[in-house]
């Protein structure tokens, strides 16, 4: 697309974040985006606006304010009750065209990775997917002859090639600068009870057309499983655990440590554990205080989802397993013997305190 | 019923990644494969061919050697292949890629377009929905199941916490997940067909309603500021204990040292 002219570009101001909600409950990524948006906004000397889209969602405004949103734009319409690409894309694209943000952040969730590309194509700007680091800086990074170096650009860093490489991307000539951001990576701010935001109600009008799909059925996985992204200690198992039954060893260890069990993709593919416990490129990104990688070989796609953990303990019988390349403490040995003994030893240790 | 499946030839990052001595990715040493999500999309289309006699066209954009992936698709059972290739299309980001593919699709007839959710080299998941946007079509991403119902499709759409069953009127675009199905193998007859198959090549001039400002590196709004191999934090300690007891003592010692327990 052609570069926007300077006059048009100058109209785009402020950091906007898409405040994803499902069933009138704000998704965790929304608070993470507000926190990150606030950090970027301070560098640009501007503020952060949450864009809340849904049906009868005005009750969620205070929560967004308490987590740091300076303004909340609410698009409330019965057509927006459950997520569908079209009415949501129309809502967000209309907000962008009306309020002209400099930066637009969306969570890289199953919703955001559908909404983001549709909206970026509609408002004709670039979009960088699955970012893990956002900074404000110069583009090009180093001044070059015959090219204007632009300041205060959003520099968006993301993994590619299955986590083997990283790239930093800019969108210097078009606005807004759009990114989807991987959940679990950015930090939310502490909640400040009673904090208020300026609220703007906006409705661009919704007229169903061919792009409105019909929802025939909604099925929620009924689950009381706690989100592994919130766990302080994760006991994670891979193919080496051997069977669904044998995960009992990991359950026991997690229990004495007050942690949770998670797993690698191979475990989900084998049907031993549900997808929501999967760590990695196609699962969740986690950063617990302690991550036990048990019987996990350490494929790069898995490592991409757990390498930010504070302490990584790996137990694997294969001395050459790549997981040892990222582990702080690697133990070569038979998990079937070590894990139960470890559980007992920790139990004893805690009882002695 | 006419189905077009958009596929991409990608380096196989799953079956072991190869590095050069200097630590950079050795792309030459890695196999080129059909992107897994795209292959599942192709299989879904071939099942519509088996069931309803749908005509299946595969389309790819890339270097001339990307014709290989079209031949593989034809050997699996696709009817025709379209290769979009031109020097001026190189270096495209997802905007320029989707604009280009949309321009090629405007020249073809379709009821249903299927793309993979994402390619394993870029992992963006952007090109499918962006093609739909350029063509003004309804899009259903993350398809786990695809059924045809008269002039509509019924799709099981995956979410983080469950799924939606969605119905869209054709023409529409669906992005497929690799868990959608188990793709079939090429057949000897199919391989024979592939050798003689008709592969049409589109260049820049064949793209319909596409402005020069929207293609290739120049037409890409996102620019790479820096690319590098990922720097990992590196290995810590590795021990090979003589007994499980030694292993346990080691781990418990470290957990105490770090005040975990």
Greatest interface: A-B, 94 and 81 residues
Tally of DSSP helical segments of chain B: 6
Strand order of the largest sheet of chain A: 7-11-6-1-4-5-12
Helical content class of chain B: 25-40%
Bin the helical content of chain A: 25-40%
Oligomer: heterodimer
Shape of chain A: globular
Strand content of chain B: 25-35%
The ordered H/E elements of chain A are HEEEHEHEHEHEEEEEEEEHEHEHEEH
Please report the distance between the alpha carbons of the first and last residues of chain A: 65 Å
pLDDT average of chain B, as an integer?
Answer: 91
Please, what is the average pLDDT of chain A? Answer: 94
Please outline what is shown here:
The complex is a heterodimer of chains A (353) and B (261). Chain A has 353 residues and is an alpha/beta fold. Chain A has helices at residues 6-10, 28-44, 61-66, 85-99, 112-123, 248-257, 265-269, 300-303, 335-351; strands at residues 15-19, 21-22, 25-26, 48-54, 71-76, 103-107, 127-131, 133-139, 150-160, 165-170, 177-181, 198-201, 214-220, 233-237, 260-263, 290-294, 311-316, 329-332.
Structure description:
The complex is a heterodimer of chains A (353) and B (261). Chain A has helices spanning 6-10, 28-44, 61-66, 85-99, 112-123, 248-257, 265-269, 300-303, 335-351, and strands spanning 15-19, 21-22, 25-26, 48-54, 71-76, 103-107, 127-131, 133-139, 150-160, 165-170, 177-181, 198-201, 214-220, 233-237, 260-263, 290-294, 311-316, 329-332. In chain A, the strands form four sheets. A seven-stranded parallel beta sheet of chain A has the order 7-11-6-1-4-5-12, sandwiched between helices. In chain A, strands 15-14-16-17-18 form a five-stranded parallel beta sheet. In chain A, strands 8-9-10 form a three-stranded antiparallel beta sheet. Chain A has nine helices and 18 strands. With 353 residues, chain A is an alpha/beta fold. Helices cover 26% and strands 27% of the residues of chain A. Chain A is globular. Chain B has 261 residues and is α/β, with parallel strands linked by helices. In chain B, strands 9-8-7-10-6-1-4-5-11 form a nine-stranded mixed beta sheet, sandwiched between helices. Chain B has a two-stranded antiparallel sheet with strand order 2-3. Chain B starts with a strand and ends with a helix. Chains A and B meet through helix 4, helix 5, strand 7, strand 9 and strand 10 of A and helix 3, helix 4, strand 7, strand 8 and strand 9 of B. Strand 18 (329-332) of chain A pairs parallel with strand 13 (237-239) of chain B.
């Amino acid at each position: 697309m052609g570069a926007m002219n300077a006059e048009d570009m100058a109209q785009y101001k402020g950091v906007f974040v898409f405040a994803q909600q499902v069933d009138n409950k704000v998704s965790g990524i929304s608070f993470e985006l507000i926190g990150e948006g606030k950090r970027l906004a301070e560098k640009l000397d501007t503020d952060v606006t949450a864009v809340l889209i849904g049906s009868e969602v005005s009750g969620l405004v205070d929560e967004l304010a308490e987590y740091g949103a300076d303004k909340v734009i609410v698009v409330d319409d019965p057509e927006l009750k459950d997520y569908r690409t079209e009415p949501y894309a129309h809502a967000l694209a209309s907000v962008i065209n009306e309020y002209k943000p400099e930066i637009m952040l969306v969570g890289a969730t199953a919703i955001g990775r559908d909404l983001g590309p549709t909206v970026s194509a509609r408002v004709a700007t670039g979009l960088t997917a699955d970012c893990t680091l956002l900074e404000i800086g110069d583009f090009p990074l180093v001044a070059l002859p015959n090219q204007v170096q632009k300041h205060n650009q959003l520099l968006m860093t993301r993994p590619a090639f299955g986590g083997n490489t990283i790239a930093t991307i800019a969108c210097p000539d078009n606005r807004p600068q759009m990114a989807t951001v991987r959940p679990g990576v950015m930090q939310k701010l502490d909640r400040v009870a009673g904090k208020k935001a300026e609220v703007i109600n906006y409705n661009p009008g919704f007229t169903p057309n061919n792009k409105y799909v019909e929802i025939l059925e909604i099925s929620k996985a009924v689950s009381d499983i706690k989100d592994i992204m919130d766990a302080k200690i994760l006991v994670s198992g891979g193919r080496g655990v051997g069977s669904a039954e044998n995960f009992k060893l990991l359950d026991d260890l997690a229990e004495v440590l007050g942690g949770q069990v998670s797993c690698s993709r191979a475990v989900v593919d084998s049907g031993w554990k549900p997808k929501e416990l999967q760590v990695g490129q196609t699962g969740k990104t986690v950063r617990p205080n302690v991550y036990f990688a048990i019987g996990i070989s350490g494929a790069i796609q898995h490592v991409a989802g757990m390498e930010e953990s504070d302490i990584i303990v790996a137990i694997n019988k294969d001395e050459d397993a790549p997981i040892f390349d990222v582990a702080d403490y690697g133990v070569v040995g038979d998990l079937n013997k070590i894990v139960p003994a470890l559980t007992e030893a920790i139990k004893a240790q805690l009882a002695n305190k | 019923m006419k189905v077009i499946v958009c596929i991409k030839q990608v380096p196989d990052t799953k079956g072991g990644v190869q590095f050069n001595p200097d630590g950079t990715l050795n792309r030459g040493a890695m196999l080129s494969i059909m992107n897994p999500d795209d292959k599942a999309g192709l299989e879904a289309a071939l099942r519509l061919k088996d069931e309803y006699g749908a005509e299946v066209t595969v389309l790819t954009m890339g270097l001339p050697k990307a014709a290989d992936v079209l031949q593989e698709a034809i050997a699996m059972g696709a009817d025709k292949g379209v290769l979009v290739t031109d020097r001026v299309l190189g270096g495209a980001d997802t905007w320029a890629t989707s604009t280009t593919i949309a321009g090629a699709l405007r020249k073809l007839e379709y009821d249903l377009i299927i793309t993979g959710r994402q390619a394993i080299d870029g992992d963006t998941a952007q090109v499918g929905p962006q093609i739909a946007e350029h063509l003004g079509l309804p899009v259903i991403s993350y398809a786990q199941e695809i059924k045809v119902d008269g002039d509509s499709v019924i799709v099981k759409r995956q979410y983080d916490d469950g799924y939606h069953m969605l119905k869209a009127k054709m023409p529409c675009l669906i992005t497929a997940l690799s868990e959608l199905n188990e793709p079939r193998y090429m057949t000897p007859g199919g391989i024979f067909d592939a050798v003689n198959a008709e592969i049409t090549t589109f260049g820049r001039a064949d793209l319909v309603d596409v402005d020069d400002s929207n293609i290739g590196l120049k037409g890409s709004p996102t620019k790479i500021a820096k690319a590098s191999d990922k720097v990992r934090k590196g290995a810590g300690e590795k021990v090979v204990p003589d007994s499980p007891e030694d292993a346990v003592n080691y781990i418990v010692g470290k957990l105490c040292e770090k005040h975990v327990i």
